[in-house]
Every structure is written in structure tokens, then in C-alpha cells.
Amino acid sequence: MATLPLHNEDVSEGSEKPRWANPHPRPSRNTMIWRYFVVVSFLVGYYLLLRPVEAPCTSPSCNLKCDTTACSAPDASMDTFTSPESDQSQYENIEQESYEQAPAIQRPLVISTEVAEKKIPLEAHIMSKCPDAKDCLQKLVLPAMEQISDKVDFKLSFIASVSKESSEIECMHGPGECIGDMLILCAANLPFPATTDESLLPQSYPRTPIIRSLGFANCLINGYQYIPDRDYIHECAMEHGIDFDALNRCASQQDDIPGGGGQEKAPLSGAVLLRESALHSSELGVRTSCTVRLDESVWCIRDGGEWKDCVQNGDGANPQALIDRVNQLWEERN
């Protein structure tokens, strides 16, 4: 039996090499060319597919040399751009020209189309411990306000006797009614949101939203016999989101003269608010609680448990009649 050749077996020079001496023969020329072509194709495809995307054109100067979507970074040969060593004034001129050429992009013109709404004056003159005030609010004012609160400039005014020679204020149902009047006025005039130092308030500041102040007034007057019980007032204030401490400070403030005491601006004073409100009602000749006035004219009066002098042949006591009239005035003026 012939023996197999060993790997370390000497092979005489010129003899044929065994097959194990070169197990991986050199590939042919065509094979090498094909391999190079595959590698180069892969690299080119990788570069084209995965190269980073250039940022969009946003600068004013760039807008001069490209479209409105994107452009490549400028090179040194472009006349629009200058190097840091070039004249600074030339760069400023170019920037100015870019603003003049693209005003719609760089300096958009915003035109306000908002028109001031002309709200309809609606006012109720009341006394806080008067049963007619309770009926007036709950049977006419509140049902109407649920639908027209955004179209009216609503205000509660109060009826009291005010001395023009002194700071005395006299209310028909006693001192407790004066306190109730002041509390309702204070609630409507408190800053919103609340602040701890009213003396720092500007001359014009946001006040309590009408939905809160009117709700608080209705709560107090609904149990008018409990005014001015502290716990009852506190319950109504908490129910309608009124700051009780600020309310108490306002009603307790005794200065009857705005800015009194040598201060630049005194805190809110319930006495001042009630005095001004009572004088306002007196100047209009309103003496009956409750008198509802729409657009500076008497709309309806609640007195002695009855509706009196209501417009539209008495139909003015109907909330829908008030709603319809407000809507009509609103359409005419807006």
C-alpha cells in the first residue's frame, strides 16, 4: 500500500507540488475586478443614502442666494457673503437689503381685527336685607344673567341715606344692612386674583368675575335675616370663591375718604364704596328696592311683593323679555 505524503516531507526541486501545498489558489483577474466593483458600489451607495441632510435656509442673507426651503452653506466665492476680515459696513448693507427684499418673511405685519364690544348697561338698585331684593334677584335678574352675562355691563347699586356734610350712612333696615351692602360691594371690587396688599394695586385692575360676586350677593340676600352673622358670611364667601380675609379687611376699613390717612392710596374701603353707591342711586332718583334699570332707563320695580312699573305692559317682569331686549340692543350696537 502506498504511503500518504507528510506535510513536512521534502519535495525535490522541479517536482510537481502536491495539492495540499496551495489549498487557496490565487483568484483570476476577472474575479478581482468584480470584487473591487462590488466594494466600490457599496461605498457609493452608503454615502448617498446615509449622508447628513443639510439645514434649511433661514438667515436673511441666505435668502438672497437660494429658495425659501433650503440651501447649501455659502462659499468664499459668493459676493453676498464676506469674510470676517472684509469691510463690516458692507455686511450691514447686505443685511439691510435682505430685510427690504423679504419683508413678508422677516417683518410680518400683524393687523388686529378685534373690535371693542359695546355691552348693554344693566343695573339693580337694592337693599341687602330687603325681601323684595331677594325676589327681584331670584325671579328676574339671575335667570336673565344666565344667558346675557357676556352682553351686559352689570352692576349692583345700593339705596341708603348719605349725609353730604358728614360720613354718616343710614340704612333702612339698620346697621346690619349697611354691613351687608358693604360686603357685597367689597366682593365685587376685590382684585382678582387676590392680593395681600391692596395699596400696591394700580388704578385699574381686574376685579372679581361677575359670576362670583353676583353668586355671593344672592347667597347673602337669600338668607338676609342672618346678615351680618360672621359664620354665614364666611360660608357664602367660601362657596363662591371670595377671599374672606380680604372681604373682612375691606368691610372693616373705616376711612370714608379715598386716600385718607395720609397714604398715597388707601386700601379698599367698604364705607367709601357704599357711600359712592348710595349717592349714585340718589342722583338717579332711585328710592325703591328693587329697581332694575336697563340701558339707563327703568325696566321694572319689585315693591311690596309685587312687580310695578314694568315695561312692555308689565311683561318686563318676565326674564325672557329682558333677555330678548338685551339681545336686540346687542345686535344693534355690535
Q: Can you put this structure into words, describing what you see?
A:
The protein has 334 residues and is of the alpha+beta class. It has a domain at 120-333: Glutaredoxin (3-Layer(aba) Sandwich). It is 40% helix and 10% strand. It is built from ten helices and seven strands. The strands form two sheets. It has a five-stranded mixed β-sheet, with helices on both faces. A hairpin with a 2-residue loop joins strand 5 (291-294) and strand 6 (297-303). Helix 5 (175-189) packs across helix 8 (244-252).
CATH topology category name of the domain at 120-333: Glutaredoxin
Largest sheet: 5 strands, mixed
Number of strands: 7
Number of helices: 10
Q: Please state the average pLDDT score.
A: 76
Class of secondary structure makeup: alpha+beta
Give helix and strand order, one letter per element, not per position.
HHHEHEEEHHHHHEEEH
**What is the level 1 CATH name of the domain at 120-333?**
Alpha Beta
- Poorly predicted regions are 1-13, 58-113, 258-264
Q: Any key phrases for this structure?
A:
single chain, 334 residues, alpha+beta, Glutaredoxin, five-stranded mixed β-sheet, two-stranded antiparallel ribbon, 7 strands, 40% helix, 10% strand
Chart the SSEs and their pairings:
Blueprint: H1 29-50, H2 88-101, H3 103-106, E1 120-126, H4 131-148, E2 152-158, E3 161-162, E4 169-170, H5 175-189, H6 210-222, H7 230-239, H8 244-252, H9 270-283, E5 291-294, E6 297-303, E7 306-308, H10 319-333
Parallel strand pairs: 1-2
Antiparallel strand pairs: 1-5, 3-4, 5-6, 6-7
